[in-house]
């Protein structure tokens, strides 16, 4: 099965004309069967909040929960937690209300997290702490997929039981990775489409990177390329989860809908959609 969705549900204005903030998630769930929850990256979410989001979505809906940033080395230390044990415990507790709606936890490591022994050990530690959950691994440093390390990295992911987060992103130096179409898990593969904005990828001036990094709209030729890629991946892995993250300019929702149409998918079990006056 191929599941298609977006990063977050709050920023996709084309879905929400006249919709209040409190209704955005249930409205989103009328369009897509999955969402990547990125607020969990910035702060471990309260269990009551996760329970509310689970209750607002249909039974068939799934969340891809992004790991807290201190777990993946984006920030030093353990945030508001006393130590790493308390941090992981709080994060794991936050997942419980999702139950079967948890598709996977996404562990995305930062551009400076390169391929060396101590980092391999930390990746292994994170996987151990999240034992029992489906967990996806995404690197942002090219060293993991260099010519000499690519096969060893993929073999490591397979041995450790990681879901491969396959990326489409600009090839803009060491802080980006190539597209490696290789599932490492028998039942789940994640595909994240970040756009191909080479000039915006490394533009961190004035703290406005989010406004420019994912400023990109996939054209029909590029979507057709990924339609082919996803169908090939589906031959090797039971479930493919595709997330459009190209939303700096609000393009993700439109591209995702184009992609669903190109694949001829008709999802069942979505939330009821509020009909336009003239529909």
UniProtKB/TrEMBL annotation:
InterPro entries: DUF72 (IPR002763), UPF0759_sf (IPR036520). It comes from the Bacteria. This is DUF72 domain-containing protein.
